[in-house]
Structure formats: C-alpha cells, structure tokens
Design a protein that fits this description.
heterodimer, A: 388 residues, alpha/beta, Rossmann fold, Dehydroquinate synthase-like, alpha domain, 2 domains, 6-stranded parallel beta sheet, 3-stranded mixed beta sheet, 11% strand, B: 141 residues, Nonspecific Lipid-transfer Protein, Chain A, two-stranded parallel sheet
C-alpha cells in the first residue's frame, strides 16, 4: 500500500472509447450521435494516398465529412493548425475527425480550440484557461503509442519563438476515441516497436510520478502487463489483430494514466534529445527507460515491485531496489527482443552533446514530476552517459 | 501589522519581500518573460464583488513594479494565473503547490506553460515570499 493519509488527487475520465475490429465503420453513427453533420477530417497525405483508411473513413462517415485537411506535419506547428482552422471555417465544420498518430490528433485538438473560440491557436496557449466545451472531436489513432486520443493536452511548435507550447484543458479530451486494430495493421515493425515503447514509458513514468494516484496507477499497471504480452507479437506479426488491438488498448490506458499523473525525467531527456537531434520519440524513450529506472531504483519503493510483477519479473516486496533493477534489466531485454537500439550511441548522437542535452532536460516541464527532485544537470548527464 | 489580501498595501509589502530576498534574486535571474498577473476571482460573500489582480513586473531576479489592478489590465499581461480566493489562500499558506494546482485545474494559466514550469524554483521562492507577508484574509475578518 503506497498511498498515505495525505492522498489527494484529481482523476478526469477519458473520452468515450469505441474498440473493435472495424470500429472505423461506426464513425457515421458516432458523428450523428454528436449532432455533427459537417466534420473536418485531419490527417496526412501518406495515410490518404498510400492506405485505404481515408477511403474507409469517408464511406463510414456517410456524407458527414465536409472537408479534408491532409497536411498534418510531425510536431504540429501553430501555422499548420491555423491553416486547418481556415479550411474548417470555410467549409462550416461543426466537428473534427483526426486520423493518424499523435501529430494528427494534436492538430485536431488545436483545431477544435480555434473552431470553438476563434482567433488563432496561439491566442489560447495556457492551462485550464479554456472557458467552455469544444466542438466535438473524434480521434482515430493509427499507432499504438502516443495515447493522445486520451489526453487533455496538445503540444504546438511555434517556430517564430523557437519554442514548443501547450494548450491543456479538460475540454481538450476528444469526445470519442475509436480504437480499431485494422488501423494499425500496416504500421511497420520498427515503428510498432518504438511507438509501443512510448506507451510503456508513459505507463512506467506515470507510476512513479509525484502526481501518481490510484486510478492512474491502475491504468498504468494494466498497460504494462498488456504491452509485455502483446508488443513482441505485434512486432513479429503486424497482421495479428488480437495483438494490435491489445496494444491500442494499452496505449490508451497509458495515455489516460499520464494525462492525469504526468511523465518525468525520461520524457524530459527524450524531449531534449528530440528537439536537438530529431530522433524518433518512441525510440529515444525505449533506449533511455531502463537507465532512468535504474537511476530511480532507490527512490520509488514498492512501486517498482508492482512494475516488476506487471512485467513478469519475480520481485520481493522486501527488496524494492532489487525489483527496480530487475525490472530495468527486463526492459532492456524487451528492447532487444523487439529490435530496438539499446544505446544512444547507436542513434548517431555525439557524446559531446550530452552535457547540453542534460541542461536542456533540466528546463523541461516534465522533470518536476520525478520521484525525487533533480536540480543538477550532472544528475541528468549521469543517466545519459549510462545510456550512451 | 497585517495587510488585507488583496490590497495595494499587501501588494507593496509583497514587492518589498521579493526584492529583499537574495534567494529570489538568484532563482529569478533567468526570468525575462514579462509580468505575471495573479487574478483572484470575484466572491461577493467576502466582499470581493469583482475580480482583483496583483501584478508583478519581474525581470532577472528583480521585481521592477507591483500593483493592484482590475481584470481588464490583468488580461493584457503575458502570464495570467487565475484562482478562487480559497485557492490563493491555500497557495499562500503553502497548502497548494502552484504548479500542481495549475496541472490539476485549480489555478488557470493563460500563457506559455513550459516557461512557467522551467522557472519552478523561482515560483517556489515567490510563494515563500508570499507567505512571509503578514496577511489578513477577507474570509477571516
């Protein structure tokens, strides 16, 4: 029992979740339930031109798609969201349907803000400052990792200021998340592995965040168990729809966990390395996670026993540090099993840049939720060095 | 002598507390992002018939100016943090961590969250200074 008498928390329920093989076919009914007849579809050209998903979606929506914005960019910029908003206004959109990974869903969230509140997306940067519910947003993930379909935040890049910024609000939760394993079937093995480990990092970090609480813990532990069982299967055989579906559920559970409990040091380092070297977010999470777990092994207590047990590692409540180290070793082996790199050096990151990355990570918002306060760049650097 | 919160006198006492604290000078030295407005929501039951804000013009570890203002002026500042009287009281009594409060929606931030979070140490020192100001709370009168 890891909760004290001082326990106090907020847990916000997630969107309506529709799960199932070919759940995509329900989009028309779902839009109708939301009283939406002129949705704007937000996706990228790859999905529109190289897969059948957009065609299936159009058919399912039965005339309720009024326009299509196909120019979603990775790390969505304010400018791209404003362009989507202009199109949405032109076609008189009354809802948003996002189809894709985290970037498409985050673009959809930003668009829902502008469609409701007017102006440009950066006019609304802030946390819990939105005054009212947004136009409905239906999110359909095509990766099992970011969990953005379950979260209350959109991350926006503002190249003019050279910064990322956030809009966070409970109103940003999509109204509906459609989890359809056929939408992730075509994801290549390496991307399946990397996005899956992003979900794993969300779950593990939510469990040892300073904002941890019983509801997010439950989601996170369930996600870890499921990822251990089904991520290797998804990587080995992308057409295994049972595994694909379970991974979508796990990513959504991990998303719900970290939307409430936040992430910490691992993501702080990942954001900094990503900003500096533009490496894949999930791959960076995977490489760093075992090292972050070892770093925090003395600090997390019983929670590491829970993590180890969820990973199928024998762990005694009498020795949580050993449990943490054993769980970290298992995480490292999981990376190997699913074909991911295990060292930062394998990613072409120069060692001499690590000190700068450590300084950047110290300034990342996520770091403040670490299980023990991290005030010195040297502490971050020690983790990066071990991961190199 | 205790000062009513919020009031011009309380704001000036807070201004003095911030500027006489070497810890803030150090913790806030990288702050170059403009003024913060702290808005107290209206609460007629304790005599707050409209929103009141205290604004701190902070720059590189110094509070250049502090003043009490209405909602309209507050909303022109680059960072606006809004809370109920009870929530601000909890912050000043160190019962509510302001960053946690923002994350949980107890305090509402208009502005760039990463910049605020990046300066978490400075925020902690500001709260520390706040709690040093002798304060008379309107709901305790």
């Amino acid at each position: 029992m890891d909760y004290g008498a001082d326990l106090g928390f907020t847990f916000v329920h997630t969107p309506k979740v529709i799960f199932g093989e070919n759940a995509l076919a329900e989009v028309g009914t779902l839009l109708s339930d939301l009283k939406a007849s002129r949705a704007l579809l937000v996706t990228d050209r790859f999905l529109a031109e190289k897969t059948e998903l957009v065609a299936r979606l159009r058919k399912a929506a039965a005339g309720r798609i009024a326009g299509e914005f196909l120019d979603v960019v990775p790390d969505p910029t304010a400018e791209s969201i404003d362009r989507a908003s202009e199109l949405a206004r032109r076609v008189g959109a009354d809802a948003v349907v996002s189809l894709g990974g985290g970037s498409a869903i985050d673009t959809g969230k930003g668009l829902a803000v502008v469609l409701t509140e007017g102006g440009r997306v950066l006019d609304h940067e802030g946390y819990h400052a939105l005054p009212k519910p947004l136009v409905p947003h239906l999110a359909i993930p095509t990766t099992a990792g970011t969990g953005s379909e379950m979260t209350m935040v959109t991350v926006i890049t503002d190249p003019a200021r050279g910064q990322k910024t956030f809009i966070g609000s409970y109103f940003l939760h999509p109204a509906v998340a459609v989890l359809d394993p056929t939408c992730t079937r075509d994801l290549p093995p390496l991307l399946t592995a990397a996005t899956g480990m992003d979900a794993m990092a969300h779950a593990v970090e939510a469990l040892f965040s300073t904002l941890r609480q019983p509801f997010s813990d439950a989601c996170a532990l369930a996600a870890i168990r499921t990822i251990m069982a089904f991520l290797p299967r998804s990587v080995r055989n992308g057409a295994d729809l049972l595994a694909r579906g379970q991974m979508l559920i796990a990513a959504a559970q991990a998303g719900s966990a970290f939307s409430n409990a936040m992430v910490s040091l691992n993501h702080a380092m990942v954001h900094s390395l990503g900003a500096r070297f533009h490496k894949h977010h999930g791959t960076l999470n995977a490489v760093l996670l075992p090292h972050t777990m070892r770093f925090f092994a003395p600090d997390v207590g019983e929670r590491f026993v829970w993590v180890a047990q969820a990973m199928g590692v024998a762990a005694s409540p009498a020795d949580p540090v050993a449990a943490g180290l054993a769980a970290a070793d298992r995480m490292d082996r999981l990376n190997a099993e699913i074909g991911l790199p295990r060292r930062l050096s394998e990613l072409g990151i120069p060692r001499e840049a690590l000190a700068e990355v450590a300084e950047m990570a110290l300034s990342d918002g996520s770091i403040i939720y670490s299980p023990r306060p991290i005030a010195e760049a040297a502490e971050v650097l020690s983790v990066l060095e071990r991961a190199y | 002598m205790a000062f009513d919160f919020p009031s011009e006198e309380w704001t000036q006492a807070y201004f003095n507390a911030v500027n006489s604290d070497p810890n803030y000078k150090e913790a806030g030295k990288t702050w170059t992002y403009g003024a913060l407005a702290f808005v107290v929501s209206k609460e007629p039951s304790i005599g707050l018939t409209e929103e009141k804000a205290f604004i701190l013009d902070l720059h590189q570890g110094v509070c250049r100016k502090a003043w009490i203002a209405g909602l309209e002026e507050a909303q022109k500042q680059p960072f606006v943090i809004t809370g109920t009287y009870a929530q601000w009281k909890a912050v000043m009594k160190k019962e509510l961590d302001p960053i946690k409060g923002m994350m949980q929606g107890k305090l509402k931030l208009k502005g760039n969250l990463p910049i605020i979070v990046k300066h978490v140490k400075a925020a902690q020192v500001l709260v520390e200074n706040c709690s040093k100001v002798p304060t008379r709370f309107l709901d305790e009168k």
